[in-house]
Amino acid sequence: MAGPAAAVAVVVGGGAAVGTLAATAEPSLPPRTAQQLLVDLQTARLEGLSGTVVQSADLGLPNLPSLSGGGSGTADIASLLTDTNTLRVWYSGPDKTRVALMGTLGETDAIRNGKDVWLWSSQQNKATHRTISDADTKSHALPNDLPVTPQEAADRALAAVDPTTEVTVGRSATIAGRDAYELVLAPRDKASLVGQVRIAIDAKEHVPLRLEIYPKGSDQTAFQIAFTQVDFARPDDAQFRFNPPPGAVVEEATGTPAKPDASHGKTPEDAGFTTVGEGWTTVAVVKGGKDDADAGKTEEGAQILSLLTPVSGAWGSGHLLSGRLFSVLLTDNGTIYAGLVAPERLYEVALENK
């Protein structure tokens, strides 16, 4: 999907309530089929965009040290996993994007202007600069690989649209003052913990304005991200120019930022990455070695494992992280199983791979 998919980021101080995401009365719009809405999303073209985004996550995760950071007030990037956040987004083509994640105690900005990419932390008074190639269109992203606009979240959800997914049209809505259609994705395989993914699509610009993910059997979202204000005019170029303030620590980096993953920075091939199953019930398997098995013996590793649930069975023993949308099994031999499924499915795969 072109254009808007690259847009990211934005906003002003600290923690708008989730209630602000609520849409107003349902508008009257000409009927469109699910297929037409899919085409709208895939053919959307956007010159520019800016706006305010509110994102919230209630994944049912424990308060892990590696997730909680310093709390939402510090604009810690990891808070996107556990808290409610307000961001501001500026987009002027794939090579000019800016995202500001702001808290009451500081802000984190990711800015791309041509080949220049800056990551700025006001709390640390530190800026990291890197020069990238023209081909890299994802370097604007904050380094946690989580979507920070409805467009990015929708792109990932739409990647799952295949025979395993039922696609229907939901109710229209008014979001950020704009009329929107709603596309509903539902896994056909009921073994998935995902019940529905709802994408609200701007009726004129065909850009996602809101995305909501509901766990199976629940009417309360586990993840939602939505514009509360949006403007489709091209932002001024000044929004993408960054000059470190006096006294700031400036680091020069090379290459593209690595995306953190469960394999401790290894490539999928090096980490023994495989998948089992298909669609919404796919289980990712990362086979670790001795270093991975010993990770739990470190102080940080032991602290994290102490917050997880010890589990065992015919497949072996390990620790379980279970949320509203996904489960992760860390076995004592260093292998990781993860998917949008209940723990029982992970145990089955672990037994098959024993």
UniProtKB/TrEMBL annotation:
Span list, region Disordered: 252-274
Domain MucB/RseB N-terminal residue range list: 88-234
Source organism superkingdom: Bacteria
Pfam annotation, one family: MucB_RseB
InterPro entries associated with the record: LolA/LolB/LppX, MucB/RseB_N, OM_lipoprot_carrier_LolA-like, Sporulation_related
Gene3D superfamilies: Lipoprotein localisation LolA/LolB/LppX
PANTHER family: SPORULATION PROTEIN YDCC
Name of the protein in question: MucB/RseB N-terminal domain-containing protein
Natural source organism: Phytohabitans houttuyneae
Lineage: Bacteria, Bacillati, Actinomycetota, Actinomycetes, Micromonosporales
